[in-house]
Hints:
- The structure is a homodimer.
- Chain A is α+β, with helices and mostly antiparallel strands.
- Chain A has one domain (about 1-20, about 30-160): CATH 3.50.70.20.
- Chain A is about 20% helix and about 30% strand.
- Chain A has five helices and six strands, in the order H-E-E-H-E-H-E-E-E-H-H.
- Chain A has helices spanning about 1-15, 65-75, 95-105, 145-150, 150-155; strands at about 45-55, 60-65, 85-95, 110-120, 135-140, 140-145.
- Chain A has a six-stranded antiparallel beta sheet with strand order 1-2-3-4-5-6.
- Residues about 1-30 of chain A have low confidence and may be disordered.
- At the A-B interface, helix 1, strand 1, strand 2, strand 3 and helix 3 of A face helix 1, strand 1, strand 2, strand 3 and helix 3 of B.
Amino acid sequence: MRRFTFFLVAVATAGLAVLIGPARGHADGQSAPYVTDIPNGYRDWQWISSAHEAGNLNSLGAVLGNDVAIRAFRAGKLPFPDGTIIAALHYRNVPSEENNKVFGQAQSFVPGAPTNIQFMVKDSTKYAATGGWGFGHFADGKPGDATFMKSCFPCHEKAKGSDLVFTRYAP
Amino acid sequence: MRRFTFFLVAVATAGLAVLIGPARGHADGQSAPYVTDIPNGYRDWQWISSAHEAGNLNSLGAVLGNDVAIRAFRAGKLPFPDGTIIAALHYRNVPSEENNKVFGQAQSFVPGAPTNIQFMVKDSTKYAATGGWGFGHFADGKPGDATFMKSCFPCHEKAKGSDLVFTRYAP
């Protein structure tokens, strides 16, 4: 969500109407490497937290982590070790008509259509130019293009105090 | 979230100011058995979906499932088999000041203080009187009392078409 938002804010600033391009390369001549392959098995990972972005983004989703990520979050140790992968699964925030009928008012919101999946992959060597993190963004299985991916690091860099990770572990 | 809401709506209707009582028994003379022990390891389970309740509930959280639950959700087969356990982890829906500073507006919401954890445990014999499901509600580790727990089944019964489960699996 936070990553999602940061991406979208950056994209909106750039005035791009379409978020996803056909580029599949690891990097272009001007940008650092980014994640171009969806990590295997991410949907089976454990839950770190949920998040909701109100307003135009209108997003609801979850942040999951691989075993390395979960151990690091629970231990509360920074920086995250190499091998950490964090996945942010984003969906449209939609009302649940079924629930709202029961409540008699529009109060329940659930994940609707998937919008994108984003990843942070820690590899302090490969991604040295972007704080040790590789950033990934996929919509319909296709990675964001190089121009789009350039917007990730500058935003995440603002979270230096937590090793560029905005999400906190929900107990 | 949905379960949380149903509980709270029922409780509000009953005019109860305090949700959690000291009762630890399996049932009283008038109600069906309910879940009085927190299932082991639920925080390690896989993610089924997230949910947000707006309005007075102001809740944000996640629904997790044990292996039996996850397999059943993914297969889309009903009814859920005995052994299914579904956990709903609820938190206050709070703004993320950290994120909002970056965005320049209040749009990011994250889980705040935990409010309660709820469970649905499928055992078609033990919980035959409540559609095969045992319902559990825990706040600060303490189960809801018998009066409170009576409100679960009547609401969940409205979801007969999905074996009393309101949550859908997020892809």
